[in-house]
Inverse folding.
């Protein structure tokens, strides 16, 4: 009996998208509002947040499907802060639980990025530059830049569906 072997190219792993890192101190809903106003998008908060580790770590996500250009825009928080009780290895006279705040990142390679804007289509470099210029005109954004997704170690975290 003959053995059949199928070889899949890596081209299935690399979906066509543009990824932009945004540094700002705004709340997610305010940033989505300013992006909608500046770029003419219609980002809306999804009903369910991105869920990692069975609800232990969640990231807010805003999405817009542009039917005219067949693109999907996603604005997702890169930072999740969670309050936990610290476990002590020693006994103390005053046995109080201490709360600590743990910080998790959607893309650990970019810990300083506050938000990620993922546009699921391949834009020309001039269109990406136009989007970056529009983002940088928002006074509350400190900086924004394009991220090369091919070098990311945690690119699986960018699969939102």
């Amino acid at each position: 009996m003959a053995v059949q072997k199928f070889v899949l190219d890596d081209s299935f792993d690399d979906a066509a998208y543009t990824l932009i890192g945004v540094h700002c101190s705004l709340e997610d809903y305010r940033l989505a509002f300013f992006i909608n106003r500046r770029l003419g998008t219609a980002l809306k908060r999804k009903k369910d947040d991105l869920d990692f580790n069975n609800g232990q770590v969640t990231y807010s996500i805003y999405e817009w499907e542009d039917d005219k250009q067949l693109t999907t825009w996603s604005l997702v928080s890169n930072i999740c802060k969670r309050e936990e009780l610290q476990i002590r290895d020693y006994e103390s006279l005053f046995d109080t639980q201490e709360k600590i705040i743990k910080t998790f990142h959607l893309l650990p390679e970019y810990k300083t990025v506050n938000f990620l804007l993922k546009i699921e289509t391949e834009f020309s470099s001039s269109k990406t530059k136009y989007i970056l210029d529009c983002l940088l005109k928002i006074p509350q954004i400190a900086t924004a830049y394009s991220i090369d997704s091919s070098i990311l170690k945690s690119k699986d975290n960018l699969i939102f569906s």
About this structure: Residues 15-89+96-151 form a domain with the TATA-Binding Protein fold (CATH 3.30.310). Residues 9-13 have pLDDT under 50 and may be disordered.
